[in-house]
Amino acid sequence: MAALLFKPVPARIAAEQLRFMLGTAPFAFIIGGIGNAAMAVIFALNAPVLPLAIWAVCAFLPVPFLRLLANRFRDSPDPVAEAGRYQRYAVLLATAIGVLRGILPWIAFDQASPLAIALLLCFMAGIQAGSLSFMAPVLPAFVGYSVVFIAMLSLKLVTLGDPMYWGMAIGSILFCIAIIASARSASQTFQKLAELRFENNELVERLRQETAIAQAARLEAETANQAKSKFLAAASHDLRQPIHAQGLFLEVLARGQLTAQQREILDNARAASSASGDMLNTLLDFSRLEAGVVTVSKRCFELQPLLNRIGTELAPSADEKGIVYRQRDTDVMVESDPALVELILRNLISNAIRYTERGGVLIGCRRRSDQVHVEVWDSGIGIAADNQQEIFREFHQLGNPERDRRKGLGLGLAITERLARAANHELRLRSVVGRGSKFALILPLAAGQSGMQADPEPSAFANDHTTLGTPCRILVIDDDEAVREGMLRLLKTWGARCEAVEGIEQARLCLDRMAPDLVICDYRLREQRTGAEAIAILRERIPDLPAILITGDTAPERLREAEASGIPLLHKPVLPAALFAKIRSTLPPRAKRAHG
Prior knowledge:
Layout: H1 2-5, H2 11-43, H3 49-58, H4 62-74, H5 79-108, H6 114-135, H7 139-159, H8 163-254, H9 260-291, E1 299-302, H10 303-321, E2 324-327, E3 333-336, H11 338-354, E4 360-368, E5 371-378, H12 412-422, E6 426-432, E7 436-444, E8 473-477, H13 481-493, E9 497-501, H14 504-510, E10 518-522, H15 531-541, E11 547-551, H16 556-564, E12 569-571, H17 576-586, H18 589-595
Parallel strand pairs: 2-4, 8-9, 8-10, 10-11, 11-12
Antiparallel strand pairs: 1-3, 4-5, 5-7, 6-7
Helix pairs in contact: 2-3, 2-4, 2-5, 2-6, 2-8, 3-5, 4-5, 5-7, 6-7, 6-8, 7-8, 8-9, 8-13, 9-12, 9-16, 10-11, 11-12
């Protein structure tokens, strides 16, 4: 019977039950003691006063013992392990309280009237019901308290000898059975609630740990990504310097008198240098996207001139591989950023040529309602369905385990996808392994284009690099000796008078000898100083001094700083034609008229 009534509970549940009972019992017994004192006053009219007074005072004795037990349990080094021992103390204390309550009938009933006895029974029933709310979680304590009290009460009623009191005794026993059943149900409910709370706490803790693990993994991934970006930026910068200088020297060499064999060797060297520059510029495009300095300037323009320009540049690559390059002409006008669209399509078409060995590449446009689908078809190796998302990840390449440099760095499609997203254009892919692929860039058709005029395309400057004029004065600031020497030689072949220095202090001294028409300055100088800082210092002496920044940096923060300076910016390695065009566009009109 006891085993059915008192089922064992886990130690942590027992600790919670005991903590709840000991936390609420002292206050409840203070209120109960006040009620006991009131009952003692009522029975004092017919019963001995002194025993009742002693009993009323003793009714408050459980309070300090309960507080002491609660404090000891709270301060226990391991309450869960000690729960069983302290629960036994609580059962003994509760049983003693039941004995104390059961003494009152033996003091007061002999001279009391039936009405007073009935009143006491009602009061005791209320006390028992009230005790259930805080003692029921520790069921053995409540049972010990109730059984002892009801047993002493019933025994006293039987000794009174009146059958009416016998009925009261039987009713008290039945009440005891009922209230113990209620206490058992309440104890089970409390146990389930405690178990649920522990489970919730465990879930919260597990979630916290998993969140911490996920956050640590995210931070680790971010750190690795930052380390990768820093490495790429540093490697890119260090590679750009000699390749930039090499391009300058090759251009100077190309302007000299060469034999046919020398010219052929020079063209091969320039092609190799251009290929290196293309790969570095791919890294630059990727870094510009990461830095968030790619801006979208939309306008209406004709698509065909842009496609012609790309075809003129890339068709020879297809001819060299022996594959067909075909382009269907179109008269559509679209609304987008022409520079971004050109870069996206150039990446898609060059990628198609790179991975096509037989057949060819076809570029065409389809109108779809208010959109234009610019499609790039190829008969290359194709892309399996499970790889069609992976190819847009940076440095991911298909069919290039040996990392053939002719197949690029694996950044082209990653850049293309990000550029399309930046311009809010959709990029679609359909591919069959062994049969080829189709990439489609979805562009908005220019509204009402039948009567519209496209904005004029910016014209490329002529390749005649002989019109700067000798009176043009240019100051070059660069901390790389090879770059300084290459710039000096190239600028002099263009007829400019120039000086080259490695830092800000030398540039400041140079102003005493020459007032330049233009400053060309590297962005990263020695001692953590920047080209923007150098130009600002020179402009204190010569306000509004025209300037061009050249940078080999691809670190996102450096790109943002350089872009924020507002000074025209070129990226190493700079093609001589691009440098020439930038110098011409940056020189003030006065200098162009005087020196052109």
